[in-house]
Amino acid sequence: MIVWLNGAFGAGKSTAAQELLDLLPGSTLYDPELVGRGLKEMLPAKRLDDVDDYQDLPSWRRLVVDAAAALLTEVPGPLITPMTLLRQEYRDEIFGALAARRIPVRHILLHAEETILRERIALRDEPVREESPRDGSARGPGAAVQEPVRERSLAHLEPYQQALAWIRGDAHVIDVSDLGPRQTAERIAEAVRTGGGATDIVQTPEPTAETLAAGVLLFDEEDRVLLVDPTYKPGWEFPGGVVEPGEPPARAGVREVAEELDIRLPTMPRLLVLDWEAPVPPGFGGLRLLFDGGRLPDEQIRDLLLPGSELRDWRFVTEDEAESMLPPVRWNRLRWALRARAQGRPLYLEAGVPVG
């Protein structure tokens, strides 16, 4: 298990985590910031210049999961992880990957109002953090880099306020305004014992080889296409999923639509696109099929149900709106699928490009 302590700078995550070690038998402190520091030492300066925060590095998000899984082969757990996590898509990626490895997460938010956070940040010591120069040169006298921790903490207050809506809906909230580190740790320990902050995410094992996946495009009366927002991975997606061994792809799409949205399609959907997705490490690629599930009547749309462990939202969108919501590879696949639908014939793609 991982006890993920979220919250703004100044909420007392690190001090509470130290106290929590005494209250949860077998627990170990796991600080993903160490992963970020390691990447700063290893990655080229040009790559680091492309991001504002090491959390923006896909390698950081993947290594956080890999390192947690590795640690849990050495210690009994739980891992106590004091780390601010404000972007919901990063939460989905990290917590979803942990769920795929059968590692449960307890998401705990330590919250205080902004005035209290500002007071605490103003009182904290300003440490000097030494980092290797980005150009890889040897560090000489006076070459240490002082990171303005107080300034960085204040800069995170606005993003924290903007993220509060989704964090409150996902995490167990503890008001730490009047609590010291020990009291906070006692509240966290009690929440963990009673199941507080348990993240109910569908467990989708990571592929170990090429996969076959079937998606189904569903439309409203205005010919807008339905997209869904998974809880276990970042970004919007089409209804559908991986085809099980021995399962016909079209029937797999019908099954997934029923499981995800409680919609029973009356007929087998028509194939629109078959796209060979090239392997891009760490992904394995494979075949991706998109089917035409037809138009949904208004009364069926009103009755759409979402499994909280798998999907958090749905939306009918135009092709232009989908471009800003889907990753490029999925949007390109949708673009060709809509053209195939208009032409009344399926298209075969290789890496998103029509062939034949």
**Can you give the mean pLDDT?**
90
| Shape, per Cα inertia axes | elongated
Q: In terms of structural class, how would the helical and strand content be classed? A: alpha/beta
Number of DSSP-assigned strands? 13
Tell me about this structure.
- By secondary structure, this protein is an alpha/beta fold.
- The chain has a 6-stranded mixed beta sheet with strand order 8-6-10-9-12-13, with helices on both faces.
- A hairpin with an 8-residue loop joins strand 9 and strand 10.
- Helix 4 packs parallel to helix 5 and helix 12 packs antiparallel against helix 13.
- About 5% of the residues have low confidence.
Structural descriptors:
single chain, 356 residues, alpha/beta, six-stranded mixed beta sheet, five-stranded parallel beta sheet, 39% helix, elongated
What's the helix and strand layout?
Blueprint: E1 2-6, H1 13-23, E2 28-29, H2 33-42, H3 45-49, H4 58-71, E3 79-82, H5 88-100, E4 105-111, H6 114-123, H7 149-155, H8 157-170, E5 172-175, H9 181-193, E6 211-219, E7 225-230, E8 240-242, H10 249-261, E9 270-277, E10 286-295, H11 298-302, E11 311-317, H12 319-325, H13 328-343, E12 347-350, E13 353-354
Parallel strand pairs: 1-3, 1-4, 2-3, 4-5, 6-10, 9-12
Antiparallel strand pairs: 6-8, 7-11, 9-10, 12-13
Summarize the structure.
Helix content is 39%, strand content 20%. It has helices at 13-23, 33-42, 45-49, 58-71, 88-100, 114-123, 149-155, 157-170, 181-193, 249-261, 298-302, 319-325, 328-343; strands at 2-6, 28-29, 79-82, 105-111, 172-175, 211-219, 225-230, 240-242, 270-277, 286-295, 311-317, 347-350, 353-354. The strands form 3 sheets. Strands 8-6-10-9-12-13 form a 6-stranded mixed sheet, with helices on both faces. A 5-stranded parallel sheet has the order 2-3-1-4-5, sandwiched between helices. The chain has a two-stranded antiparallel sheet with strand order 7-11.
